[in-house]
Write a structure and sequence with these properties.
Length: 138
């Protein structure tokens, strides 16, 4: 499998992922290559090349409708990045970690606060356990 960090290191691929995320949050059921070309202002062959890399890394899914293909974001593989990044944020900021602006569906303030508290606690616990296991040589 392709290293996810190599895949997202490319700025054009990150732009495509951000576009797909935005369109998903707007309720789109997929984005065509021609829409990506028009929105990002890059050539169709370039978009197709990058979409192939994103497909191979399982970061996007494709739905065929006749001759057209519609791409959607698949966030699950990005959990690897999240798992790698969170300990750095916890170590660097502790309880003062910056808020991450995610353009997903809106949440009530109380639900967002609860999710933040649970997420930080889980990340902190995971980091503590991982550190302890490293010290034990496991």
């Amino acid at each position: 499998m392709t290293d996810i960090f190599d895949v997202i290191a490319d700025g054009t691929r990150r732009d495509i992922l951000q576009l797909l995320l935005r369109r998903t949050s707007e309720g789109e059921a997929g984005t065509s290559v021609s829409q990506i070309v028009a929105d990002l202002g890059i050539s169709q062959p370039t978009v197709s090349k990058h979409l192939k890399v994103l497909r191979d890394a399982e970061l996007v899914t494709v739905r065929e409708d006749g001759q057209r293909r519609f791409y959607s974001l698949a966030v699950e593989p990005l959990e690897v990045v999240d798992d790698w990044l969170v300990p750095f944020l916890v170590d660097a900021f502790g309880d003062e970690a910056p808020d991450i602006d995610y353009p997903g569906a809106p949440m009530s303030e109380s639900a967002a606060h609860a999710a933040e508290v649970v997420g930080r606690a889980a990340a902190s616990a995971k980091h503590v356990v991982a550190t302890a296991l490293k010290r034990l040589g496991a």
